[in-house]
Description:
The chain is built from five helices and five strands. By secondary structure, the protein is of the alpha+beta class. The longest helix has 16 residues. It starts with a strand and ends with a helix.
Amino acid sequence: MQDRITFEYAIIRFVPKVEREEFFNIGVILFSKEKKFLGVKYHIDKDKLQAFTKEISIDFIETYLQSWTHICKGDAKGGVIGSFEIADRFRWLASTRSTMIQSSKTHPGKCSDPEATLQTIFEKYVL
């Protein structure tokens, strides 16, 4: 078990009316410093979205979350944040915000495969 490394993750939440503090989980972001891994997975359940609000389109949310994917990859489409060091990109994405897209507090763990762990957490908390 010595090949297990530490990681941190946060759950991505959709909060249609911030003042009501109601939300549902739409994704996960996971960071491992040792593996130099930063990944995000998301899925927006259309039925849940419609139950929470009819004013916001799924395309709007997906466009927003696509920028998170670019930031995780560190590519130019991630803008200035995409050029940050990997740990700083995670901290920026997982920081507290009062917008429609928020993340939970970060949680630590140990794993041997960050990509597989991201998928497991995604299936457990989002799907």
